[in-house]
Amino acid sequence: MPDRDNDARVAAIAYLNSAWSRDSLRFSPALQTRVSTLAAPRDSSERAAARAATPLAAWKTVAVTPPGKPLADYELLARRYVLNTGKPTTAILHTDKGDITLALFGESAPFAVNNFVELARAGFYRNTFFHRVVPNFVAQDGDPRGTGSGGPGYSIRDELTRQIHTRGCLAMARSGPDTGGSQYYLCHSPQPHLDGQYTVFGRILLGFDVLDRIVQTDRVLSIEIR
User: Fold this and answer.
1) 134 by DSSP, 3-state: which?
2) How far is CA 11 from the centre of its chain?
3) Which end of the chain is less congested by CB atoms within 10 angstroms, N or C?
4) pTM for the whole thing?
């Protein structure tokens, strides 16, 4: 999900590294041990921030998952979305407050769009609900658990493009780089501080009034792909 606290935690790691480099000789043995044995956070962006931090060297070890798809799958996505000269793919969110029609950016974010389309067609989003709604920020859906920590059981790569967080944009929620899955959010208003950090893969064509009426726990009855 969009995490406003992440910047603060990354800054804290940078400060700790600076303090360690400058004053570690003044730290007591107990404090040095405490710092060097801090548990690594789950967020990969925070682990990445510790790469230059001597006391946090243990955080550098992160499992890397190799690509699991053959080249033919990528070629299929390119033909289906990037090179498609036909009618653009659209999605209709049928919610209990009304319908929201979305244009999907298959050309710039084929992985995210294909993932969203396949989940929608499989009924993954049927009777999910908006587990996070922050006025003037985002409305977020796509967690079958409804807790904000659920997903499809896999993750997809980020696709950071020139698409920006305008009012009504559709973007992939994530907890760190390349951790998107099924959760997505719609922006109530422009959010430029999120640009370049999250995959924007669509925008609202119709239904801004519906978005504005949505509150937490409102349901997505289904998502129709056209």
Assistant:
1) strand
2) 21
3) C
4) 0.70
